[in-house]
Write a structure and sequence with these properties.
Number of helices: 5
Largest sheet: 2 strands, parallel
Order of helices and strands: HEHEHHH
Shape: elongated
Distance between the termini: 55 Å
Length: about 110
């Protein structure tokens, strides 16, 4: 994952597998190119070599993606939101209301 992010931050268009992309969640065809077989990798490489405009577009989009999502500041904001309970990394609404319902069942011990 880190090597992919480094390449993207260096404005190198990256061709990666779907498994690798599951970790970073980049957009296929916009920020990275996803290929899962040797033939798909070969075709993607040839496509990029023949299309300088596509190389530049993916490289710029990847650079923007990394700077938006994987800088120290972005990661710190995500951690702060998680620790403060004001946000959820999965963008789901989380109920942070404390449970104040009293326990009505007596606790018994076995003898």
């Amino acid at each position: 994952q880190n090597k992919i992010l480094q390449g993207m931050a260096m404005k190198i268009p990256c061709i990666i597998t779907q498994l690798a992309n599951n970790a970073i969640e980049a957009s296929n065809g916009t920020e990275v190119i996803i290929a899962n077989t040797a033939e798909e990798f070969a075709n993607a490489i040839i496509d990029l070599l023949n299309d300088e405009s596509k190389q530049n577009k993916i490289a710029e989009n990847a650079f923007t993606f990394v700077n938006k999502n994987y800088t120290w500041q972005a990661m710190t904001e995500k951690l702060n939101a998680l620790f403060s309970g004001s946000g959820n990394l999965a963008n789901e609404t989380k109920d942070t209301t404390p449970n104040t319902t009293p326990i009505t069942t007596p606790i018994t011990t076995q003898q």
